[in-house]
Write a structure and sequence with these properties.
Number of strands of chain B: 15
CATH class of the largest domain in chain B: Alpha Beta
Strand content of chain A: under 5%
Strand order of the largest sheet of chain B: 7-8-9-4-10-11
CATH topology of the largest domain in chain B: Rossmann fold
Shape of chain A: globular
Largest interface: A-B, 29 and 33 residues
Structural class of chain B: alpha/beta
Oligomer: heterodimer
Radius of gyration of chain B: 24 Å
Distance between the termini of chain A: 36 Å
Structural class of chain A: mainly alpha
Helix content of chain A: over 70%
Shape of chain B: elongated
Number of helices of chain B: 11
Order of helices and strands of chain A: HHHHHHHHHHH
């Protein structure tokens, strides 16, 4: 009973109710699945066309892997685009609609409001994951993919959506207008992706000038997409016996662990700052 | 005493928005905040609703410090802001259920409570309607029901009748009187002064963040000097000249304005003083044809106080 009380968050149930009543939700879900199917058809047909007569099960596995990678990568970028958008208006739209004060004068703490907003957005993204699972079954038909790989991908999606969603939420507490907070959230996420790549390649370039040729740049550890590919490689090692980066397993694990810690720190900072920002009595108890 | 503020002060940067406000709201009374825009009414109400920190001072509700223990204080306070929005795609009962849940009202109690509140605010027939389809007056009443969902002891209503038509205002007034009859204390701000004077047990006139005068209407009248305006009609011009001379000798008569054979004058005395003035006219052979007295309304006092302050 105690657990039930702690878990109860009115924002989650009302947000889900409001979201699912809108005609936009089923349309968005349909468009999402449609995009995945289009990519899947293109890449699967390309993979199938490369197969020769008398193909072996190894060839089939290649097609299965192509389908898996295609779905996972496309879905990764859709989530990176959707997660900040779904939270960037969480608090700013309450301000725009003049409902934030009504929430803040209830018994709900700022933390509960922020968590409620984030979880309701993540639940929407979770629904997108679940809707895409049947498409993964096509990869299993061809083989080459293990269930652990799908679980790894889903966990990484969760982590990335948590981080991107937290960043969106943070900006929605900073800016009064949803448009501004959305732009800032996308800009920040874009910088995380691009800066880590640019710095990483710069690092490799300068080291090569000194005659040092490392397998991997340290800045890449902070790139969620590279770490996501690394996590998939680890999960698929049992199936394929190889990874997409020419690095050791140790480096691969380090990449994923450092990135997971980085994303957790980023989301924790964003969430804690958001909670502090919407607290109208911050610094009270004089 | 249900609500007490002690030297409540608020600065926005260097701007003093609230200057050592001291008010006391008793149980079961309607207390009015009157003041022009920027007087500090909303600031005071937001501090009392735990939506803003005070720069200095204290506020207690039922003995609980709002500053030290806002979570406990919130249980006792229902707040309705001057401007508020509603959620699209939520029905009236779902809207109230959401806020009931947010106030930790047990699920089993919510249904009957919502029905009671909807009856109180005359929205029982709108229970299954979407909130965004309601008229402004209905939304105001729904917001009032929302502020009552956790059965608070004190209601803080910031301009609850703003933007309403006369019928909706009358309905709101009726509901507030019903709430008072139920023993709720209400702190209300409004620009519609005649309504406030009719409804409130006591009022506080705020100007530039300062409580200029407070008390019940009669006390305020006394504080301000129970001023009235008298209008005297004289028979002829000669009577008017002599009458004005008589009035000038009376200390209770203030500023005079002539209109034809009538004189309108500020009069700071009682009815007995008026009868003495009539006697003085008779002794001076001043022929008067009419005399009438108009007592200053709260609005006139308000304008005078604000005028003096500015």
């Amino acid at each position: 009973m105690k657990i039930k009380i702690k878990v109860n968050n009115p924002i989650i149930s009302s947000e889900m109710k409001i979201r699912m009543r809108s005609w936009r939700s089923p349309i968005a879900l349909l468009v999402y699945i449609f995009i995945l199917v289009i990519f899947l058809l293109i890449f699967a047909s390309m993979a199938l066309s490369t197969m020769r007569y008398g193909y072996s099960s190894a060839d089939y596995s290649e097609v299965g892997l192509v389908i898996f990678y295609t779905l996972s990568i496309v879905q990764f970028f859709i989530i990176v685009l959707v997660a900040p958008a779904s939270t960037a208006g969480a608090i700013s739209s309450e301000r725009e609609k003049q409902t934030l004060d009504l929430l803040l004068c209830t018994q709900m703490s700022p933390a509960k409001i922020v968590i409620g907003k984030l979880v309701s957005s993540l639940l929407w993204i979770l629904l997108m994951f679940v809707a895409s699972i049947p498409l993964y079954s096509i990869a299993f038909l061809f083989g080459g993919v293990n269930p652990m790989a799908v679980v790894t991908v889903m966990l990484y999606y969760f982590l990335v959506s948590l981080t991107a969603g937290s960043i969106g939420l943070f900006y929605s507490t900073v800016f009064k207008r949803t448009v501004t907070s959305s732009i800032m959230a996308y800009l920040t996420i874009f910088l995380i992706f691009i800066l880590s790549l640019v710095i990483g390649y710069a690092e490799l370039f300068f080291l090569s000038q000194r005659g040092v040729y490392p397998d991997f740049a340290k800045a890449f550890y902070f790139n969620p997409f590279i770490a996501f590919l690394g996590a998939m490689s680890i999960a698929l090692q049992g199936s394929t016996g190889s990874n997409i980066f020419a690095v050791t397993s140790y480096q691969l694990y380090t990449l994923v662990i450092v990135n997971v810690i980085f994303l957790f720190v980023l989301s924790s900072f964003s969430l804690l700052t958001s909670m502090k920002r919407i607290n109208p009595l911050k610094g009270s108890k004089r | 005493m249900l609500l007490k503020t002690v030297n409540l002060t608020k600065y926005y940067g260097n701007f003093l928005a609230l200057d050592k406000l001291n008010i006391e709201v008793r149980e079961g009374e309607i207390y009015g905040f009157v003041g022009p825009n920027g007087a500090g009414k909303t600031t005071a109400m937001k501090i009392l609703a735990c939506l803003m920190n005070a720069s200095a001072g204290e506020a207690y509700i039922d003995g609980i410090s709002i500053m030290q223990n806002p979570a406990k204080a919130k249980k006792l306070i229902g707040y309705m802001p001057d401007f508020f929005g509603v959620y699209d795609n939520l029905k009236v009962d779902e809207y109230l259920d959401f806020y009931a849940d947010a106030h930790n009202v047990p699920k089993g109690e919510r249904g009957p409570l919502i029905d009671d509140l909807l009856r109180l605010v005359n929205l029982a027939d709108k229970k299954d309607k979407y909130v965004d389809t309601l008229s402004r007056g209905m939304k105001q009443r729904l917001c009032l029901a929302r502020s009552l969902i956790h059965e608070p002891k004190l209601l803080i209503l910031d301009e609850p009748a703003s933007g309403m038509d006369p019928q909706a205002r009358a309905e709101m007034k009726f509901i507030l009187k019903a709430l008072k009859a139920q023993g709720k204390s209400i702190l209300i701000s409004s620009h519609i002064l005649p309504e406030l004077s009719e409804m409130c047990d006591r009022v506080c006139i705020l100007s530039r963040g300062k409580a200029v005068v407070s008390g019940n209407i009669d006390e305020i009248m006394d504080t301000m000097g129970r001023r009235a305006k008298i209008t005297i009609g004289f028979l002829a011009d000669e009577d008017l000249q002599n009458g004005v001379a008589v009035m000038r000798t009376n200390d209770l008569v203030g500023e005079m304005v002539r209109e034809g054979n009538n004189v309108e004058a500020v009069f700071n005395g009682t009815d007995e003083d008026i009868s003495k003035l009539i006697k003085a006219f008779a002794l001076s052979d001043v022929r008067i044809v009419s005399i009438s007295k108009t007592v200053q309304s709260l609005e006139q006092i308000f304008l005078e106080v604000i005028g003096n302050e500015n």
